[in-house]
Amino acid sequence: MQECAELRVPLDYREPYGQQITLSLNRIRGTVSRDGNHLGTLLVNPGGPGGEGLSLARYVAAKLPKEVAARFDIVGFAPRGVAPSQPAMSCVDPARFYAPPRPDNVPKNDAEERVLVGRAKQYAEGCGNRWAWFLPYLTTENSARDMDAVRAALGEEKISYLGYSYGTYLGAVYATLFPQRVRRLVLDSVVDPAGVWYQANIAQDRSFDRRHRDFLAWVAEHNDVYKLGTTQATVSFAWYSMRSRLRDRPAGGVVGPSELDDVFSNGAYSDRLWPYLGSAFSAYVRNGDSSVLVKLFRTVAEIDEEEENSYAVYLGVECRDAAWPRSWDRWRADTRKEHAEAPFMAWPNAVYNAPCAFWPEKGGTPVKVGTSHLPPVLLIQAERDAATPYAGALRMRSLFPTSRLLVSHGGNHGVSLAGNACVDRQLSAYLRDAVLSPQRRGTRGADATCPGEPEPRATLMKVTEGGQGTASHTSAKRR
């Protein structure tokens, strides 16, 4: 049974009795009594930044083995700025600002680039005009302090934590600031804390491009279904030709090249979406049928008020956490260099983060992550993860000497509780008994490995608007 609550926390922890904001919480109580084998609170976060954790708490409670879930009170929270916590950020009118088709994220000339830069400035100005009082305090460090306020309000001496994607960085900051408050710590799909945040986005360009090529190769392997070519190179030519064609003739008047990027970037997070992407791709290229592509966009990539709230918080946190280049010349030079090797994501990723070049609050100094004063820590990572590349997990492990790294030989983002039985067994053993694999720096630095999930079955899929989303339980954000 779900319980819901609100918690008032300081806007500025240097002024604990000053202005307050409100966090929304939920809790699914364990059934084991407190004087039995109850293990206290398991706090969860889905990533983003900008993902709300209330739905994740329900998901985790349902997906954990019953005997494990019974021993925890599983608690989710919407971090500061994220609805339904208050205030809930929004910087533009999503119906107008994101009205499709948007300008192509890959500019062909200086004039097109100026349009993209102008939109980034407009977004940053919108945030500054609406939220000047809030932006200075929208940081990962303050969210970690919010987590400790949740712990204290629950009357817990220690808490356990399960974080995905950006949630791994949030958990790492919490563990660094409050190591004595940690009982269990699981970081799944690990952010590189040394890349916060400009360099982390540069690193993503190559990993997203590689994962997109994995998808194109899969389509080629199943030419009997999709009929787009028998080699990755042939299918890649078809995909970029489709993207080019959509500049002049958006599918259904809606899906231009930027919307296409949004749709297909979801496939980098989870290959469960590949049959849907392959079907839309094939229908458009072979039959001139844009309806599947449009339905898929409406279902997995259209930006509404909830997504605008999430994006506003994403930028608010990342732009404030750390320094970003303030010269667009630097962004242009770096993006052109990456685009030459990784055309799928380089410009879209730069445009996505571009408001940070003009953000009204300058970036601060990130928490120096790392401590040896922790109980055993479990890190979980897919080898070919696009959003949080593998190197980040190795870096995080080096900063937490008590950690062990469990690697899945796959590419899906958000590995645990998503269908990988090998990973889930080890997660459950750790949560229940704090059992970890012995330290064994094996292939590519893993302490333990699991097979990846089988590739999805190739078939032509029908898409019903609102009926097919990303298969991952993590937030479909950059992290």
Q: What would a concise description of this structure say?
A:
By secondary structure, the chain is of the alpha/beta class.
Describe this structure in words.
- This protein is α/β, with parallel strands linked by helices and 479 residues long.
- It contains 17 helices and nine strands.
- It has helices at residues 54-63, 66-69, 94-97, 110-131, 140-153, 166-177, 198-221, 223-226, 232-248, 257-269, 274-287, 291-300, 305-321, 328-341, 346-353, 390-399, 421-433, and strands spanning 2-10, 20-28, 41-45, 73-78, 159-164, 182-188, 377-382, 403-409, 448-451.
- A nine-stranded mixed β-sheet has the order 1-2-4-3-5-6-7-8-9, sandwiched between helices.
- The protein starts with a strand and ends in a 28-residue tail after the last strand.
Strand order of the largest sheet: 1-2-4-3-5-6-7-8-9
**H-E string:** EEEHHEHHHEHEHHHHHHHHHEHEHE
The proportion of strand residues reads 5-15%
E-strand count: 9
| Uncertain ranges | 468-477
Roughly how much helix do the residues carry, as a percent range?
Answer: 40-55%
How would you describe the oligomerization state of the chains in this entry?
A: single chain
Contiguous helical run count: 17
How would a textbook summarize the main sheet? Answer: 9 strands, mixed
Mean pLDDT, nearest integer? Answer: 95
How do the strands and helices of this protein lay out in sequence?
Layout: E1 2-10, E2 20-28, E3 41-45, H1 54-63, H2 66-69, E4 73-78, H3 94-97, H4 110-131, H5 140-153, E5 159-164, H6 166-177, E6 182-188, H7 198-221, H8 223-226, H9 232-248, H10 257-269, H11 274-287, H12 291-300, H13 305-321, H14 328-341, H15 346-353, E7 377-382, H16 390-399, E8 403-409, H17 421-433, E9 448-451
Parallel strand pairs: 3-4, 3-5, 5-6, 6-7, 7-8, 8-9
Antiparallel strand pairs: 1-2, 2-4
Helix pairs in contact: 5-6, 7-9, 7-10, 7-15, 10-12, 11-12
